[in-house]
Design brief:
Blueprint lengths: L8 H21 L4 H18 L25 E6 L2 E6 L5 E5 H30 L2
Antiparallel strand pairs: 1-2, 2-3
Helix pairs in contact: 1-2
The structure holds zinc ion (ZN).
C-alpha cells in the first residue's frame, strides 16, 4: 500500500458507492437482523480506511461515532432537537452525538423529495391496477 497518499478519485468514488450500498442494506436488514447491520457498518468502515474515502454524509447519522454500531432512529437511537442542535443518542453505548441543525435541514429536504417520488410511483401502480 502507498503510504499517506490519496487514492485516485475514481477509486474513492467506487468506495463511496459501496459504502452507500452497505448502509442501504444495513437499514433494510436492521428490523430482521440487527447484528448483520452492525457488520455492514464495520465493512463500510474498512472500505473507508482502505480507500481514504469518507463515509457518505447522508449516512453520517446512521452509525455511532463511538461504538460504530448501526443506528436506527426509534429502535436503538433517539433523535432529539435541543436549541439549534440535533442530539442523537446511541442506545448501544449511551454516547450522544451532536449535529448542527443546519445540516439536518438539508438532509430532511432531500428525504422529502424522495418520499414524493415514492408516492408518485405508488399512485402509478394503483392506477395500473384499476385498469384491469
Ligand atoms: Zn454507540
Amino acid at each position: 500500500m502507498s503510504r499517506g497518499s490519496k487514492k485516485p478519485k475514481w477509486m474513492r468514488n467506487i468506495a463511496k458507492e459501496r459504502m452507500d450500498i452497505l448502509f442501504t442494506l444495513a437499514m433494510k436488514e436492521f428490523p430482521k437482523n440487527s447484528s448483520r447491520s452492525h457488520r455492514y457498518v464495520e465493512i463500510a468502515r474498512d472500505i473507508s480506511k482502505k480507500y481514504k474515502a469518507k463515509i457518505p454524509q447522508k449516512w453520517s447519522r446512521s452509525y455511532c461515532k463511538n461504538c460504530y454500531k448501526f443506528l436506527f432512529p426509534g429502535k436503538n437511537s433517539n433523535v432529539r432537537l435541543i436549541s439549534s442542535e440535533v442530539h442523537i443518542k446511541c442506545h448501544e453505548c449511551d454516547n450522544v452525538m451532536i449535529v448542527p441543525y443546519k445540516k439536518e435541514k438539508k438532509l430532511k429536504r432531500r428525504s422529502k423529495i424522495n418520499a414524493h417520488i415514492i408516492k408518485e410511483r405508488t399512485n402509478e401502480q394503483i392506477s395500473f391496477h384499476n385498469n384491469h
